[in-house]
Design goal:
Blueprint: H1 2-15, H2 17-46, E1 57-66, E2 69-73, H3 80-87, E3 91-97, E4 104-107, E5 110-113, E6 116-119, H4 123-126, E7 131-133, E8 145-149, H5 150-156, E9 166-169, E10 173-181, E11 194-197, H6 198-204, E12 217-222, H7 228-235, H8 238-242, E13 248-254, H9 255-260, E14 263-265, E15 268-271, H10 274-301, H11 303-315, H12 320-357, H13 368-394, H14 398-402, H15 410-446, E16 456-459, H16 470-478, E17 483-489, E18 499-500, E19 503-504, E20 516-518, H17 525-529, E21 533-536, E22 550-553, H18 554-560, E23 569-572, E24 575-583, E25 598-601, E26 611-616, H19 621-635, E27 644-645, H20 646-653, H21 655-689, H22 691-699, H23 704-738, H24 749-773, H25 777-781
Parallel strand pairs: 6-11, 8-10, 20-25, 22-24
Antiparallel strand pairs: 1-2, 1-12, 1-13, 3-12, 4-5, 4-9, 7-10, 8-11, 9-10, 14-15, 16-26, 16-27, 17-26, 18-20, 19-23, 21-24, 22-25, 23-24
Helix pairs in contact: 1-12, 2-10, 2-12, 2-13, 2-21, 10-13, 10-15, 10-21, 12-13, 15-21, 15-23, 15-24, 21-24, 23-24
């Protein structure tokens, strides 16, 4: 019997090629989207979970308490790890971990900027980054040791072992290769080409030894039987025992968990990348459900043509359960064919998907997790898509069918219409998400930041040779054609990360603890950044006292309480001076947060810190870059010339959002495409049911436009209902998402979505309506 059912199913598929193609394509696209999302979600969930000691690895977080606010950060004192592992028995190992550094590594005539991290001795014992050569327990114990990747070993020591060889760092320090890293696990959130001793870095950065200064990150590994809650209670006031003036509590968060849960507000965890994981998991289900509803509607639309088959089967003795089994079998067959097509789509699209998401995903059908997902996806799709058609078709009355008077109950019509409302409701949610996310990202990228980011570039890490000679470098550049102005700054335009509470002024409440962002800079800072000065002037070498003076922004003036700040006293880090300029507020970080109060002090000698900011003349950037490179090589002959545009830095800040925006666009488009197939199917079903009515109306003089309007209005109503239901749901969730940005788009984008959905529905339905209206009434009424 099964063989017979299979033959019938195959003949029906082959007989109705267009119907089968639409069904298979709809399901295949839905399943392919779901599989791609599953691959992405699985990778996100597995991030940083590959470490052997995963359950015992934790990041140290700080809650910094200020007057009325709590700032949560992973920045810690640079001496925390070595002290906490000694003082807290439950902590077995600890390591400071620095942000990404890009020093110049040189061996013989080969040199280049390489990205890596400074870590402490136990880092490779705590984390599962395997070595191809060397001993993980001792590779980072010596201060002058360096562990490099196989890529760097091949680059600098071609054809020979790198172990024990010397590498010169930034033209001033020699280090010895003590280990060679294997390829880093793709599930690592940390990527590096080398590891060097944190103690080496600490020698050149004495500020990090102070308990009152924060910067480096700290990771710890707990003892096997340690209770993290008890450890958290024990270490909460640890920094206060080292610094009596501290306002900081510390606590531990599982290292793997911190990747997905990275957002904190007022000392509480509020989200992070987990939001995108949840969102795309829901999108995967939505798209699959939309595809299944599409199948249901198309199968129901075909029911009239198969009604006599069902009637005859029932007359000759077929039971309802056997008919259900037959139609469910056909559904599963279509699902299996769709799965094969979906797998082909996934394999073909995966390289592009990896490029879009900046991941290294692979589709392995023999992976137990993926095998379970594919099996579950097939079963879910086959049963869900085939359930209603199977139950509906098997319930038909054979007497009614064979008399040629097949009519459907209102309940059946309501159910199908409900499916359309539900299907298009999900699609409208996706369209709204697509438009809102896209417009918000576009808004961020084009928002006026308060300074001119066009024609502004910077050279990072001035410690690589030109720092002490910066005044001469600045002068040489400004003498070149195409270069408007040059300055130095501790941080690049949108990455001002330093802050301080060490600011006082006459009348300040000594109990208040207020935080200010700080960015020491050089002469011509305001001019080069093209920031609007509301009052006062820029730093100038003509004023010898400017080394003690300050520029502040509007937010800082408001926090201090100065209405006319220029000329007023201000003391920072014990250096008393005056405010010489009031800058209009400009963004110094992500638009997720409001503009911070900022103080800019003058530091004309950029010794071992900062970036060079260079403003080029409009239309002369290419020529200017050539001149900058020429001058750069005069001052740094042994350093690669690398520069960055301010616009590129802005893109980096919103890398995750950009990926989400693009994915939303693609998935929303596919959801709408699949939904339109479903709407197309229901329109075909309705037109087929009303063929004779249309013929009679045409005979009585109805025009094609009247018939099209008649057939379309019911569907437009359904989509309008979908929009009315979806609108408040989308409004709630998307407003919550937008609220995470201090600066965001306006509400009217939601209205655009509803109009777009109605337009798409009208176009889809109109095709079938026009086709039905053009039928010759002679053919449709001849049996009468």
């Amino acid at each position: 019997m099964f063989k017979n059912y299979l033959k019938i199913a195959w003949r029906n598929l082959w007989k109705s090629k267009s119907f089968s193609l639409i069904n298979i394509l709809g399901l295949a696209l839905g399943m392919a989207c779901s599989l791609l999302i599953v691959l992405w979600v699985k990778d996100e969930i597995r991030m940083d979970r590959f470490h052997e000691n995963d359950a015992r690895l934790y990041r140290v977080y700080e809650n910094q308490h200020y007057s009325g606010t709590i700032n949560t950060t992973v920045a810690t004192p640079g001496v925390l790890a070595e002290n906490i592992v000694r003082d807290i028995p439950e902590i077995e190992m600890a390591s400071q971990l620095l942000w990404e550094e890009t020093p110049v590594l040189k061996v013989g005539d080969v040199f280049d900027n390489e990205s890596g991290r400074y870590v402490q001795g136990d880092f490779l014992k705590m984390f599962s980054y395997d070595l191809a050569e060397g001993d993980a327990a001792s590779a980072l114990k010596r201060p002058d040791g360096i562990v490099i990747s196989q890529k760097l070993a091949g680059k600098y020591f071609k054809g020979q072992s790198a172990m024990g060889k010397t590498i010169r760092v930034d033209g001033k320090t020699d280090v010895i290769v003590t280990g060679v890293l294997k390829d880093i696990n793709p599930s690592s959130s940390l990527n590096f080409e080398f590891l060097m001793s944190f103690d080496q870095w600490l020698k050149d950065n004495a500020w990090a030894k102070e308990w009152g200064n924060n910067g480096p990150r700290c990771a710890v590994m707990l003892a096997k039987n340690a209770d993290v809650d008890k450890v958290n209670a024990k270490i909460k006031n640890y920094i206060k025992t080292k610094n009596k003036n501290s306002n900081i509590d510390i606590f531990l968060v599982n290292y793997g968990e911190s990747y997905l849960y990275s957002k904190w507000e007022s000392g509480k965890q509020t989200g992070g990348r987990i939001e995108y994981v949840k969102m795309f998991s829901i999108v995967a289900v939505f798209i699959l459900v939309i595809a299944c509803i599409n199948f249901m509607n198309l199968a129901t639309a075909r029911s009239v043509k198969r009604a006599k088959e069902v009637g005859l089967r029932k007359v000759v003795g077929a039971y309802r359960h056997s008919l259900i089994a037959q139609f469910m079998g056909e559904s599963v067959l279509i699902t299996l064919i769709s799965l094969l097509v979906a797998i082909v789509i996934v394999v073909v699209m995966l390289p592009s998907f990896n490029q879009l998401t900046d991941k290294k995903l692979s589709f392995d059908l023999f992976d137990p997790v993926m095998l379970a997902v594919v099996f579950g996806l097939t079963a879910f799709t086959g049963i869900m898509a085939g359930s209603y058609p199977a139950l509906f078709m098997s319930s038909l009355n054979p007497v009614t069918i064979l008399k040629g008077s097949l009519k459907f109950k209102p309940s059946a019509s309501y159910f199908r219409q409900g499916l359309v409302v539900f299907q298009f409701g999900l699609s409208i949610l996706l369209i709204m998400a697509m438009i809102v996310v896209y417009r918000q990202i576009d808004f961020i990228q084009h928002k006026n930041l308060g300074f001119d980011r066009g024609n502004l570039l910077y050279i990072d890490d001035l410690e690589k040779g030109m720092a002490k000679n910066f005044p001469a470098f600045k002068q040489a550049l400004e003498n070149e054609p195409g270069i408007k102005s040059v300055t130095a700054s501790q941080a690049s335009p949108l990455e001002v990360g330093s802050s301080t509470m060490g600011v006082t002024w006459p009348g300040k409440d000594t109990i208040q603890q207020l935080l200010f962002a700080v960015n020491p800079s050089g002469y011509d800072f305001v001019k080069t950044m093209d920031i609007q000065l509301l009052d006062g002037r820029d730093f100038s070498p003509e004023y010898g006292t400017d080394t003690s003076n300050y520029l502040i922004n509007e937010a800082a003036a408001k926090k201090i309480g100065y209405k006319d700040p220029v000329g007023k006293e201000l003391t920072m880090w014990g250096k008393k001076g005056k405010i010489i300029g009031l800058m209009k507020d400009y963004h110094i970080g992500s638009l997720h947060v409001a503009i911070e109060p900022l103080i800019v002090g003058l530091q004309p000698k950029t010794d071992n810190w900062g970036v060079a900011l260079i403003r080029t003349e409009s239309g002369q950037t290419k020529q200017a870059i050539d001149r900058i490179e020429h001058v750069f090589k005069q001052f740094n002959p042994g350093t690669p010339f690398k520069y960055y545009f301010a616009d590129q830095e802005l893109d980096k800040l919103y890398k995750s959002e950009n990926v989400v925006s693009k994915l939303s666009n693609y998935f929303a488009f596919l959801a709408i495409f699949i939904s339109c197939l479903g709407l197309f199917g229901l329109a075909a079903f309705t037109a087929e049911q009303r063929t004779k009515e249309i013929g009679v109306r045409k005979v009585l003089g109805a025009s094609i436009s009247n018939l099209v309007a008649m057939l379309s209005k019911d569907f437009v109503k359904l989509v309008a209902i979908s929009a009315l239901i979806s609108f408040p749901i989308a409004w709630y969730f998307l407003r919550n998402w937008l609220d995470k940005y201090a600066y965001r788009i306006e509400w009217w984008y939601f209205v655009v979505t509803a109009i777009a959905a109605l337009s798409i529905a009208l176009i889809t339905v109109s095709f079938q309506a026009i086709k039905a209206a053009l039928l010759n009434p002679v053919k449709t009424l001849k049996s009468e």
